[in-house]
Each structure stands twice: as C-alpha cells, then as structure tokens.
Amino acid sequence: MLLSINASPAINTNRASWPKRSHTRKIAIRPLSTTPVSHATSPTSPRLSAQALAETQASKDAEPTSARNSAMLHRSIKTEPMQVVAGRQRHLIFSNGQAVLDSTCGAAVSCIGYGNERVKRAMIEQIDKFAYANSMFFGHPIGEELAAELIAGTDGVMSKAYIMCSGSEAMESAMKMARQYYTELSPKQTERVNFIARKGSYHGTTLGSLSMSGHVARRSLFEDMLLSNTHHVSPCNAYRGMKEGQTTEEYVEQLADELDRKFQELGPETVCAFVAEPVVGATLGCVPAVPGYFPAMKKVCEKYGALLILDEVMSGMGRSGTLHAWQQEGVTPDIQTLAKGLGGGYAPIAGMLINHRVADVLKRGSGSFLHGHTYQGHPVGCAAALEVQRIIREENLVDRVKESGKLLSSLLHEYLDDHPYVGNIRGKGLFWGIEFVADKGTKTPFPPSAGVANAIHTEGLLVEGISLYPGTGTKDGVEGDHVLLSPAYNSTKEEIEEIALKTRNAVVQAFEKLQYFS
Questions:
Q1: What is the Cα 170 distance to its own chain's centre?
Q2: What single DSSP character describes residue 5?
Q3: Which residues pair with 426 in a beta bridge?
Q4: Which of 376, 363, 371 is CA-nearest to residue 176?
Q5: Do 312 and 277 meet the contact criterion of CB atoms below 8 Å apart?
Q6: Where along the chain do its domains lie?
Q7: Could you tell me which residues come within 8 angstroms of residue 267 by beta carbon, excluding any fewer than 6 positions away?
Q8: Are the C-beta atoms of residues 19 and 511 closer than 8 Å to each other?
Q9: 283 Ramachandran zone, left/alpha/beta (phi>0; psi -120 to 50)
Q10: What's the angle, vertex CA 152, arms to CA 149 and CA 154, rounded to 5?
Q11: What burial class does residue 293 get, using C-beta atoms within 10 Å of its C-beta: 0-12 exposed, 13-18 middle, 19+ buried?
C-alpha cells in the first residue's frame, strides 16, 4: 500500500495572468485551509511496511485534538503542530497519513535522509558498549575517531575538535575559546573582550550567541539582557548592499573599510574576533559572500591581531558544496563551529574546531579549555556523527551536492526569475533562498502583516506536499520575506526536479490566494 503524497497540480504558465506590481498596493491574506488536500501519489513517495502503517494509524488515533491536551511546550501553545510519526528516505509521514517531501532537511539537518540503517547500527553498537562517559574524567575511542575524521576533513588546517550538542553551545564555546586564547598569550592581552559580528546574522539562541546575532526581531525581546561587548557591521549581501554600478571589488573594499573603522571605534586592542557565517542561512535566506570578501575581512583581523570565527552551523559539513564552506572562500578560520549536518539529525551534536595557532597557545599555557558540558562528546552522538560523515565521504555526497545544486539553481531561476514578486534567488550547493518583494525595481519588501513567507510555507506543506523553510526580517530584521531550500545530499534527480516544481507551484498559488486592493 502506498501512502498518499500530494502530487503537483497543473502549473499556471500564463505569466500575463500573474499579479502585477504596484507601488501603492497593500495585501491581506485569505486564511489557508489547515486540512491537507488529498492528491494522487507522487512518484517519489515512500512505500511503507504494514508495521509502519499500523504505527501511523495508532499514532493518529492517539493524537491530541488540540494544543490544550498537550503537556509539551511547543513553539506555539495555542495550536497543535502536525505530528510526525515516521521518516522514510527524504519524506516525512504525518499521523493523518500525509507524506511530505522534506526539501529543507528540517533546518538543514537531515542531510542523508531518514532511516539510514548504517547509522542506526552504529548507534546501537555504541549503546551496547556504553551510552555515556563523564568527559570531566574520561575519553572514549568513538570520540577520538570522530575528532580525527573532522580534522582530516580540513586537510590538517585545523588542530583540535570539541564536541557538544547544539549550534548555540558551539558558538558560546567559540566565544570563550577566543577569550581564553588572549588570556594565555605571552604576553597576555586581557583587554580583548569585544566581538564584531554582522547585522542580519543568527548565531544561536543562548544569551551569548544571541548577543552576537544581528537579527533585530530575534534579539528584541531580550535586548536588555544581551551582552554589551558584541557589535555589528554590515553583512555582505550583494542584492541589498551593492550600489548600482558598484563593482564587486569596490563593494568588498567598502565592507573592509567599515570593519576597519569598527576596530578603530572600539580600540583595536580590545577586539577578540570577527564572527561571520560563510553563507547566511535562516535570517537572510542563503546569502553567500561575494568573491574576495572573506580574504579582505581576514586581512583586517590580521592587521589588528584579532581572530576569525566562522559559524558553519547551518552552511557547513557539505551543505554549500564543499565539506567546509570556508574551503571555497580563500581563507581558513582560527575557530570554526559546525552542527546540523554533522550528525544528520540522528543525534543532537555539534562541534568547534580550532586551528594550530589557537591550540598551540593553550598547550603552552594552561593546557586545558576552561569550559564543559555534561553531555559533551556524548558517545552515542559521536557514533551517529562519525557514521554520517563516513557515508558522506564514502558515497562522494559532497560532489553530488555540487551537481544537484547546479540543477536546483537552474530550475529555480527558470521557474521563478520572471515572477513579479520574486526579488532574488541565491545560494550555494544545496542551500538556496528565494527573497520576495512587493516591487522588483525598488526592492521594497511586503509589510510584516502580510505574512508572505508563512503563506508560501503553508501552501507548500498542505497543498503541494513539500516543506519550505520560511523566514522574515530579510531586509532589516523586521521587514522582508524569504523561503529556504536545503534538500538532502543524496536526493535523486527526480526529487530535485520535484522540489523545484513544487516550490514554484507554492509561490505562484500562494500569491494567487492573496487579496489585492488599492
């Protein structure tokens, strides 16, 4: 028996019928139905066993009828989220029987898909040996193997790996490592306490990592609690940052000058590090840097003796078309963070890598990192991550990301470049974002009240049977809409084509369901 997955409705190919742009229009969204539409089965829908179907039905029967019945504090306590009961390859199956093609791997996490038998066996084997060891006193072979795998993936550029559970933890660790580095230098540079990050960035949800983040909406509720030693400069966003007629070289020089001025403003001797995402993911919608940007930023850091911290929590571990995103940027970081694609969603795991410069200072100094977590280097998480990374390496999935990324990029541009409300399509590898604007000429965003990104996400999920990752505040942290695509590395050609097609359908149909008035 094949579970129902939403097939592609007929596409409206008549561009003349698409909504026209207007400088004066306002929009209000007609509420979308919350009941999934039943369509014919998609060619890529997974086939489930009788046992899985029985489990699905049992979960459906037991599902809470409203958020009031749930003891779980969900993202919203007013509504009950759809309940996932199974994952098969690149599909998620919900308790109502609907199967959805997961075109975002959750939040760019499930990079090798669901239900991988190799990863399952590796985790069970580790549990059978031992599930936990206190890192305050003990190490373990599986952690050593994972660390060696990660360092080898940098061609020996990095020196040590530190393993924990989440990207936010990794960024907190990076901040503390940078600070400790300067306190252990000879002579000490204890005045270095400031961090310079970028506007529109997102580095985590804990207070330290959120302080580094430059996304206005995510910071706003906690602004009075955030650290005063974090500062922000403009991001490298060619679509919104480059002036008309400006060359890439001129734009890079402008951003380097801005960073230099920020060092001067704070006092160069007080800055620990410059912090950046090689590809800005959730908050800006997969915005890559222009060529030459990161070498110019590192040159400023080196001029003043500061460290370069690269946040690859979302963009790394193959997602952008190289194992590490910095490997195509012409720079190497002093400290690097990674997470989502590290364990592929099979266990909560993240990492921090430090280069030889940083590691050597610690060796000559205290010989230890003054930081720690109960679950750092968790053996079962390490087993999962090690097997995921071996699969990526042995199956040449990073090369596959490059090729699939070219196809996805080509199809997205073909399908959506001419849409009146698609302002920009950008990305790298299998990490792509689509930004929506009310006017292409002025790049004016829709008002937040329009809920454009969420409307497209809902259309994709409930009508097209595809997951899209919605984001807001794309322009300035408050206004702007985008959706993000980050398919699994082992997606088939047919699945990439389906993702592009259904993304187009969701965009076109969501805008058709908006009500326009002068």
A1: 14
A2: B
A3: 433
A4: 371
A5: yes
A6: 1-9+34-99, 117-394, 396-495+502-518
A7: 191
A8: yes
A9: alpha
A10: 120
A11: buried
Report the distance separating Cα 510 and Cα 518, nearest Å.
19
Residue pair 316/389 in contact (Cβ under 8 Å)? The answer is no
The single residue listed with the structure tokens 């038998």 is 117
Per-residue tokens: 502:
């259904």
Q: For the domain 117-394, what is the CATH code?
A: 3.40.640.10
pTM confidence score: 0.88
Per residue in 67-78, pLDDT (tens digit) is 568 888 888 888
Going by C-alpha positions, the residue among 502, 93, 123 that lies closest to residue 344 is 123
- Amino acid code (one letter) for 92: L
Kindly give the parts of the chain with pLDDT less than 50.
1-41, 47-65, 516-518
Q: What CATH number labels 396-495+502-518?
A: 3.90.1150.10
Residue with tokens 């073909």: 414
What ranges make up the beta strands (E) of 142-278?
A: 158-164, 194-198, 230-233, 271-276
Residue 100 in contact with residue 467, Cβ under 8 Å? yes
| Token couple for 22 | 């207007």
